[in-house]
Every structure is written in C-alpha cells, then in structure tokens.
Amino acid sequence: MAERMDNAGSVDKWKSAWEPIREDSIVYDYFASIEILNVRQTLQKAYFIIPESCREQKNNTLVKQKMGEILDTVKRDNPEEKLDDFLDKTIDLVDLIKYQHTLLSNFAFSKQIKWLSGFEEVWIWLAFGFAAFVNIVLLLTYDESDRLRDWYYGGSKAEGFDWIIFIRVLGCIQLLFAVLFVGNYAVGTLPVMMVQIDKRVQAVMNPSSEEDMEDWSYKIASKSPPFLIRSWFILTDPWIPYHLAYVVFAVLGVIFSPFFFVFHLADVIFRVTLLRYVLKSVTNNWTQIGATAFLGVLVLYVYSIIGFLIYHNDYEFGDGSIDCSTLVKCWAGMIDYGLRGPPVWTQEALDSNVRDFGTYIYNISYNLFVILILVAIITGIIIDTFAELRTRSNFVQDDTLNRCFICHLPREAFERQNVKFQKHLAREHFLWNYVYYSMYLDLKPRTDYTSTESYVRHLLDISKIDFFPIKKALSLSDSLEENEFKRLNTAIEDLTGQLSTLREQMNGQASTLQSQVAGQLSGVRDDVKQLSSFIQSRERAVENDPSVAPRDVKRN
Q1: pLDDT tens, 101-111?
Q2: Cα–Cα distance between 394 and 59 in angstroms, integer?
Q3: Which residues make beta-bridge pairs with 345?
Q4: How many angstroms separate the Cα of 248 from the Cα of each of 166, 191, 254, 422?
Q5: 168-217 pLDDT, tens digit each
Q6: Which residues neighbour 73 within 8 Å (Cβ) at sequence distance 6 or greater?
C-alpha cells in the first residue's frame, strides 16, 4: 500500500522537467505530436488531436497519482524493458482516465464531485490534523484513574471547560473529512479497481499459457467459484480494507471512545517519504524476516528446554525475571525477554555455586546465536532494504531528470548539440503523449487510419515496442544535419578563400611572366630589325657593285 500513497508528489516533483514549456501555448492543450519509427524504421513525427478525456483529466488528482505510481514502479533496467513495462502499466491509467471523464462529465453531480476530488489531499491532511488534535487533547486531559467509557460519558475531570463536548466536536469534524476522503476514493478509484480485479479473475480462470495451467495456484483457482477469487483479491488489496477501517475507526471514535482516533495517526506513514521507506524496508522482505524470526523462535525453544530441565529458575534476564514453573511459561518468557539481552544468573544461583562449565557454554552460545546472529540478521535485512530503497529512489529521480524516458538518451547528448533537454522532454518525447496517442487511435475508426497509424495500432495490439524511437531523436538528427551543413559551408568558404589566394598568386606570376616575355620579345624584335637592316644594306650594296657580292659571300 505504501507504494501507492503520495504518488501525486512524484509527478509534481519531476514535472518541472517538462511542464513549464508545455504552458507556452494553448495549442499544446489540443494538439500533440510524438516521434515514432514507421514501418520502414524511419524516424518521423505523428500529429494527432488530444482526446477530450485526456485534456479534461490531465490535472485530476487521481490521474496524477497513477502517473506518479507508474514513474515510481516502472522497471528501468534497460530501455526495452522500461518501455514494455510502461505500456503494461498504462492500461490501468487509460481505464482510470476514461472512468473519471465519464464520471465527471455525465454524472448528475459531476461538478460537485470534481470539486471534492480536486481537494483530496486537503481532506486527507485535515482528517489527519483533527485526529492529531484529538489525541493531543486526550494526552493533556485524560487521567489514568478514569475508566475509558466512564470518562467519555461521565464528564471531564477538568474544571471550567467541558472537554468531552470539545473532543466530540473535533471527532465529528474529523469524521466529516474522513468521509470526504474515503467517499472520493469509493466514487473515483474503487470502480476502476473492481474492473482491474475482474480482469485478474478472468486471467486466473482462463490462463493464457501452459506454464500457468500447470501452476498449482491456477489449478486451485480454476476450480473455485469466481466470487471467492474476487473476494480474495479484494481482501489482499490493502487499499480497500484501509479505507474501510479509516471510516470505521472514525465512527468508533465518535460513538465509543476517542482513543480510536489513534488509528488515523498512522496515516502519516504513507504521507512522509522517509517513513514510507521504513515501512517498505519491513514489508518488502516480510518472508525473509518471518523465516528468520521463526528460526529464532525455534532456537529460543531449545534454550528454554535446556533452561527448564537443567537450570529452572536459576537465571533471569536484565529486563525482568521469567517464570520457568512450566515449559510454556519458560518459552514465553524466553521469547519476551530473550531477544533483548543475554541471561543473567540470580544471586541465589551464584551463592549455591550452580555455575559450571555448562553454564559458560550456555551463556556464550546464547550470546552468539541469539543476540549476535539472529538479531543482527533481522536488523541487517531491514537496514539493507532501506538502503536499497533510497538508492532506487535516487536512481529513479536521476533517470527521470537527466535521461529521456522514451529514447533513453542522456541530457548530455542534447546539450552537446545545443538542443534544450527540457524542450525535448516537453514537446518531442513527452511520455504521456504516447498514452494519449493510443487513446486517440482507440477513438478513431480503423478504416480512417493512415499507414503509420495502422502500423502503430498493430504493434500496440500485440504489445510490441518497435515504434518507440530508442536511441533516436529528430532534434539530434536535425542538429547533426545542420552541423554537417555548417561544416560543409565552412569548408566551401575555406576552399573559396584558398582559390582566391591562388588566383591572386597566379595573376601575379602571370604579370611577371608577361613582363619577362614582353622584354625578351622586344629584344628579339630589335635583333630582327637590325638583321633586316643589315640584309637590306647588303642587298643595296650588291645592286650597286655586283663584284663585291662573291667576295663578301665567301668571306661570310
């Protein structure tokens, strides 16, 4: 029962990771999107209209408690197991949302019920507060010389003020808030629990596997009437007896005795996290503690036989003496005092020199097996379980705040890509949107499904999680593509700069080469002009004096 209490606080404790962003726009109250893997295992967004029941009941106290219970109890060993267990647990959440919407929308007094259910936590704490006030008054005014019934009906010992009437008024107010608290449970939660119990009865009556059919409990249950199985589930569910006892003790406190209000003080155990862990550390291992305690009772029985037959009344315990006139009394005294400390020999036994080597063995073995081992085992089991619960709670909180529930990617993976992790949780992979999407598919005719919706519906029907984007997110993909584009753009800019520099260098080299070639061409041109002038002059000389031509030619 402790696992179910105070689960609304779990949602409130962690909703800061996603809730502030979701309140930016009214659009997110009516439309939502999720990221899924389609039939081609390609990541895509699926847009849908949030069902009216989900919009109306998302702030319902009972719905928030159920959400907190899912967050607290879902398995987190690996992403596949976590999502698979998440789908199984959300079946009850869907039933609760549908029932609450039907109750608060169609019932004649739906507005009054909605108002009362919205203050459930207030009724709980007020009922506890008035019960505590009654006990404080009793503590300060009750006289041990009074008889319980005579004191309650015969008047107060205090003078000048009628404490009995005052206590009765406080008790009646506490009863009023207790009725509001239990009535809210009876109207809002009990019918859903009865539906779940009926499903469990059907599962027991019709086992789904051969392994279940071979189990002895299923064999017995299959031959039992359904009402007996249903009654068993009702009695073994601690919520129903607890709420029933809550009202019954309040009525008894008003009618018979105010000391019945002490029962309501135990409610604080389920409201304070540390006290819940203390309770769980015992209840979660009751089989181990019970087995160890049974072993301790047997060991004490052996020591009581030895003490009864040999030592009789020659010893006692530090907290009190025991009567060993009979074996039963000796054993009862051993159980009562034996776990608190070792046996102590009486002065008469010491004076008569009863102690011998056997008494030393008796004392040493008793200290060793009972005081050191048995008690240490029980306390060790409780302490280790308490430490495991604290470690589990810290792990769940860290996993919820720093890792996406859907894709299982850590906060660092998004921060490295400059993606806001809160935005991712609130808009891209908001885990309750996946529940709303399944309810949206339930309401939509299958003939109107898209191919993606048909694929997701088929996987939900066979309890498969293949559509969940494990280790994937579009924001990271977009960020990677954007970073790649920036990288390519930077590379292109660098290459463009290098080409521009190379062009300038080539232009400079071309100018220098052009200048050099132009200079060389100018010199060649001058040489050609000189040669041309020389040839022309020789031709003129030959024309004027033909006789010089052969000689000149020969000389040349």
Answers
A1: 887 776 666 67
A2: 26
A3: 315
A4: 21, 20, 10, 47
A5: 888 899 999 988 888 878 777 777 777 777 777 766 666 665 555 555 55
A6: 3, 89
